[in-house]
Design brief:
mainly beta, 5-stranded antiparallel β-sheet, Jelly Rolls, about 210 residues
């Protein structure tokens, strides 16, 4: 609905009438009805500051193409049970797997990791967006492990991703201590309070 301006109001000049006030009420009611059809119950402020309730974007009330922003949480969105390993040759950061994420916002990734071959010789991992010329744009902090015992980790996205983003698991061996590498398994992408719910993502190996 396009808003039809009634007049330019001038103090002590423009007449206040029931006809004009009813027009304002009618247009307000029509806007509410259209918002209800779009899944929003009422007129409200859509811009919020970056420190609100952490819904991912800093715009907690906003929808992106009808998809509400996610934030890190404990509801499992999907799981990758495959083992991913960095070996002695991966002393530089290397992409090991890619994940397509249809929902916008921030996720939490949990999993287990261990040194592959020798105690004290492990490696590092983090999650990133693909960058220019084969570089990576980190969206989580990195996790380091050097023990042969499987160690749990949890990494929260530090910035939101748009719908359809390809997120990359990036790994490298600790070349300074022999470069035996690490093995990662049981990755879980998790979220909190996202509506409407959607089907799990498809894991896309790189």
């Amino acid at each position: 609905m396009a808003y039809v301006k009634n007049t330019t109001w001038v103090d002590n000049v423009s007449p206040l009438s029931a006809t004009r006030m009813n027009k304002l009420e009618d247009q307000y009611a029509q806007v509410k009805a259209e918002l209800a059809e779009a899944g929003t119950s009422d007129i409200r402020v859509h811009a919020k500051n970056m420190d609100n309730d952490g819904d991912g974007s800093g715009l907690a009330a906003d929808l992106w193409g009808g998809l509400r922003w996610l934030k890190p949480g404990d509801t499992v969105y999907f799981t990758d049970l495959a083992s991913r390993a960095s070996n002695t040759n991966n002393t530089q950061w290397v992409a090991k797997a890619g994940y397509s994420l249809p929902r916008p916002g921030k996720y939490r990734v949990t999993g287990t990791a261990k040194a592959s071959m020798s105690e004290g010789n492990g490696g590092n991992l983090y999650f990133a967006l693909p960058g220019h010329d084969g570089n990576f744009i980190p969206i989580t902090n990195s996790f380091s492990v050097s023990t042969l015992t499987l160690t749990n980790f949890a990494l929260d996205f530090i910035c939101p991703v748009p719908p359809g983003a390809m997120v990359i698991l990036v790994m490298k061996s600790d070349g300074s201590s022999g470069g035996y590498g690490i093995t990662v398994t049981e990755l879980n992408f998790k979220y909190a309070d996202g509506i409407p719910s959607m089907s799990p993502s498809v894991v896309i190996p790189v």
